[in-house]
Amino acid sequence: MDNSKSEESSLLEFIGEGCFGKVAKCVNMNTNENTAIKILKDPFRVKLIDFGLAMPASEVWEGMIVQPCAYRAPEVSL
């Protein structure tokens, strides 16, 4: 496998893959220490919660519902 070099790391091998990307075993060229680096499939894809109901933390109390569950993104409910 070819080593892909950056300023500080050299890729040794891919050690895993999941739904968010791949994990690579690398070596830090400065310290000679092995590291694992996650390489994301969509690194610039970001999901945001609707901020239309945003309010200062001082106005929120524990247990307060600030967004109806029916309009909440499924991943926020997890």
UniProtKB/TrEMBL annotation:
GO MF entry, a single one: protein serine/threonine kinase activity
Entry binding sites for ATP: K38
Domain of life of the source: Eukaryota
InterPro entries, per the entry: Kinase-like_dom_sf, Protein_kinase_ATP_BS, Ser_Thr_dual-spec_kinase
Keyword Nucleotide-binding carried by entry: yes
Transmembrane parts of this sequence: none
UniProt-listed PANTHER family: DUAL SPECIFICITY PROTEIN KINASE (PTHR24058), HOMEODOMAIN-INTERACTING PROTEIN KINASE 2 (PTHR24058:SF53)
Protein name listed in UniProt: Protein kinase domain-containing protein
